[in-house]
Amino acid sequence: MIRYYWGRFWPFLLFAFGIEAVENLFTVFFEYRNMDFGLLPLLKTAYVFVTEFAVTMCYWLIPYAVYLWILPRGKAGGKADRWLTSAWFFLFVLANLFEDVAEAFFWNEFEASFNFIAVDYLVYTKEVIGNIYESYPIIPILGGILAVSVLAVWGMKKFLLPRNGAVPAGWKRGCVVLFLLACVTGGYWLVDIKDADAVNNRYNSEMAKDGLYSLFSAFLKNELDYRAYYRTLPDAEAAAFLAREFTADDTSVPEASSGSVKRQVRPSGGAIRPNVVVVVMESMGAEFLNECREDGADVTPCLSRLGKEGIFFPNTYATGTRSVRGLEAISTSLPPLPGMSILRQEGNEHLQTIGSIFRDKGYDLKWIYGGYGYFDNMNYFFGNNGFQVLDRNSMADSEVTHSTIWGVCDEDLFRRAVREADESCGRGKPFLQVVFTTSNHRPYTYPEGRIDIPSHTGRMGAVKYADYAVGAFVEEARTKPWFDNTLFVFVGDHGAGSAGKQALNPETHRIFSIFYAPALLKPERRDTPVSQIDVLPTLLGLLNWPYDAAFYGKDALKPSYQSRYFVSNYQYIGYLKGKDMVVLKPQRGVEFFRDGEAVEPDGRMKDAFVCILRIIYSLLFFRNVDDFPIIEFIGDTYFLSFFTAFLLVFRRSITVDFLSLFGNNFHVLFSRIFHHRVVFLRENFGHVVAADKSYHQGYGKNHGYIEQVRYNADRVSIFFFSE
Predict the structure, then answer these.
(1) For 497-550, what is each residue's pLDDT tens digit?
(2) Domain map of the chain by residue range?
(3) Which of 67, 234, 432, 602 has the CA that lies 20 to 30 A from 663?
(4) Helix axes of 2-31 and 79-110: crossing angle, nearest 10 degrees
(5) Does pTM surpass 0.70?
(6) CA torsion sign, 33 to 36 to 39 to 42?
(7) In this structure, what are the phi and psi dihedrals at residue 694, rounded to the nearest 5 degrees?
(8) Which residues contact 486 (CB under 8 A, 6 or more apart)?
């Protein structure tokens, strides 16, 4: 039997391993300066690669093993068998080549293997596929993949069927299928994508991951329960800390016992009511600014001029690596939390945001975006928090001179912003605009003749064009009657990249912020590092407005301001103060860094650790996270049969940690496909943990009643819900 299956499987194994080996060799060639070639890191890298590769191959081989199981013994090795085996091998080669090429594109953009970003992007296939099509010669690439796949089948046709070995009996072939299923099932518990984190060098760990396994893992584990996976503090202690943290100068918070963290800001002096335009600039890292460049290139003359004429923060730090994180930080002034941004979460309507503050002051609120704002739920968030939504759908074709899959060029966007400002001014209304640009994004195309760098030649051209468009926007606004009474804020959404040997590299989060109003503000440069969440409180401080809001940022212009900032990726949260950085990790992990090097914490760093625990956890505490179910798995009724059978056969105890790995991705996906849900909740001493109550608190807005009640399978209860 072993000889028979080895003869059947080895072409698949050889080809897949060869593709992965070539991909890794290319990665090593281009990233060798960043990798760690020590013996132990290489062994860890190899271990992760082999285990993930093995599990991925089991997934690929299961369908073929099922086919061999149902194939009559007399038909094995025949013409039909040869054709069907060749067809499966062709699809196998085609899919693996496509995955490797796609992952190469992803690495070029994010310097990482497939992760949660790839999962998020799968929801927006139009934009993602369009971006790839506009950025790369996709037709020749796809043609090449197809040609290689055909050649692979032609070259291997003599080896796809074994020449020796008798066909095993049916029950033996069935055992092979069960063995592969057991490997896949066991691999779910034993092979964790986080094993790659044991390799301290990020490039090693990313290279070790199998692309398909990483994508699958990111899909299953796209949500984390903060209380279960991160270190926390008691609620009362967190509340008391915040009461002290925000009681300074003109700011106070209610007593901790009140359960409120609303900051009560009461500045002295008179308030001003200018128009406000917040321009959020796509991927505009501080490294592009003339002031921060080492090569002396004049790439951002317009932004540099605005920085000299306004209040300039060249050391602003973005909270995350994606646009939704930047928009979250700027509009809500909240530090980042693991998982999805607030913009994409359920229940994000009518929050305390920049919109609620300005709406209460009688301002005309407009969200202006050159792309389609359904992407990352942006239109929904801003539309349900007081803004009039204006995106690509609101723009007539006559307004558009140039566009990409992401949206209209920045010049077209800013012309629309000026028109909307004229309209608000004509109605006698002060206005707040949040304008989000797109031109500094792959494929880096823009109208020809504007700058001295041809379109579609790379990032530097896109940066220079984005700068040019900002300059043209300000000059056009200068001709308007509302200009002298308008405060402009220019701020990046995130840096241009996230590469670094550490899981969190603070320098890749460095952006800038400029507050520009020649008639209202005196020029000033502040080199103190500030957080992106400080932009909103600093803006409100410049306006000298009293307000009540649960903002965590601080006015960076206050004498009492103490520099600190947050950085994050999907699962890691970093808190920096001076040269020290504390990083919170899943599984209640914590790491300490000084000057970028891992160190054992001293007393000062432990204090910093306590600080981040209090701040992050207090955010959860005051957002009433307990109202949502902690233990959940939501899937479709077709998955139920396999999962229940597994429980009945193996009688395994399902723990909170296991169930918590499953998150909202299943819910979102299957809620659009199936009418039924299945919810698994762990029992506690024979009693179901608040099944009905938890379910309806967490998802009750959209779902209905219990259809069936209880089916015991070793401490696991299964509940059926229907819309």
Answers:
(1) 655 556 688 999 999 999 999 999 999 999 999 999 999 999 999 999 999 988
(2) 2-220, 276-558, 634-722
(3) 234
(4) 20
(5) no
(6) negative
(7) -65, -40
(8) 274, 275, 276, 277, 421, 477, 517
